[in-house]
Every structure is written in C-alpha cells, then in structure tokens.
Amino acid sequence: MNGTFLRCLTRCLLFGVHIPACTDPTACNYDPSVTEEDDSCDFPIEDYLGCQGECLNDEDEDGVCDENEIEGCVDPVACNYDAAATDGDYCGYADAGYDCGGNCIEANADGSCAGALASCNDGSTSLTFDGYTYDLVGIGGQCWFAENLRSVHYANGDAIPGGLSDSEWITTTDGAMTVYGEGDSQVIPAGNNCWEPCGVWG
Question: Which H or E element spans position 31?
C-alpha cells in the first residue's frame, strides 16, 4: 500500500467517511447518503417543471403546462384564428359570401353579394318560439336568431331554472339560466314590451 492510501484510510477510520455531493432534498440530484455539500445541486429550470422537464400541472393532458397555455381560436378557417393558441376558445367566422373584413367575395350582376344567405334555407325570415317572434339571419351558412334568446322554457315546455345562488351554481349539474347583472331581479318573460338589453327588470 502506498502512503496516500494509508493516510486516507487512517483519516476515514478516525473521523468517519466524508462524501461530498448535493444535500438539498428539493434538488433533482439529492443524495441522502452524503455528508458534505459541494454546491453541485441541480434544480428544474422552471418552478412548474419536474426534474425530467415534465409538466407538474397539465389539467387537459395536452403536453402544454397549464402555466404556458394560451387561450384562443384553434380553427384555421376562422377569422380570429390564433396559431399560437394551445387552448381552444371562441372562434368567429365570416358571413356567407363575405370575407373576414366584411367584403363581398363575389358580387352578382345586380350588385348583391353572391353566396350571401338572405334568409334560412327554406326561405324563412322569422320564427316564433316560446311566444316571441325572432328575426332570422344567415351567418356562415347557418340560420341564427338575430337577437339573444328570450325563452325561459326548454323546447319541451319545461321551465329553465333561474335565480340560482352562488353556492347553487357551484353544485348544480342541471341546466339553468342567468342574466348578467341579474342579482335579485327577475327575467322578463318573452313578449313583454319592457324587455331591457340586459334582460332584467326590478
């Protein structure tokens, strides 16, 4: 045996074994067996990442960390398509026959816009539902009410529950309705001439 080894062996026997490494339990390379810190600890590059670079929070399991999700329209044909979006949100589309800027794509000889939907496919321009008559408008090749729905009943006649408290909204699993700013006021039934823009009174 050489002298260096003997000196090391003697020191280890007398003072115990000293192994320098990372002693921080939160580090990726933490070693519980070490006795001496050598400032070699490695940590994730971001607080929301694990030691292997994996997301710690990924609710929709799409591989994008919740902290990095970008909400936006993910449909490439929509007017507000966002190529950077990772979490689907509202998409807006041009009216039939028009581009996203509201410009007619192709005009007829009479100056009207070719392809524009003037009414629904069966020629209807209005529809009465739950006691109120709605004007119809063609948007994106589909037929829509020209204003917000005023109905307080489902198509089968059942009343749509409303006026739920905050706690009831949190726990309900059934369909329900509310109006922005409703508070303790009541929704005005369809056909009432006093209908407010926000749909409430009182």
Answer: none
Task: Say how far apart CA 181 and CA 178 lie, in whole Å.
Answer: 9
Best CA proximity match to 120, nearest among 97, 98, 102, 145: 145
pLDDT at 174: 84
Q: Look at residue 139 and give its three-state secondary structure.
A: strand
3-state secondary structure of 192: coil
Q: Is the pLDDT assigned to residue 181 strictly greater than 80?
A: no
CA distance 162 to 201: 14
- Which pLDDT does position 118 carry in this prediction? 60
How does residue 182 score in pLDDT terms, banded at 50, 70 and 90? low
| Residue 43: pLDDT band with limits 50, 70, 90 | very high
DSSP per-residue letters across 51-107: TTS-BS--TT-SSS-GGG--EEB--TTSTTB-TT--EE-----PPTTB-TTS-BSSB
- CA angle at residue 191 from 188 to 194, to 5 degrees? 55
Look at the pTM and tell me if it is higher than 0.70.
Answer: no
Distance CA 92, CA 173 (A): 29
Q: Which residues lie below 8 Å from residue 49, measured CB to CB, with a gap of 6+?
A: 55, 56, 65
Alpha-helical regions (H) of the chain: 3-15, 166-171
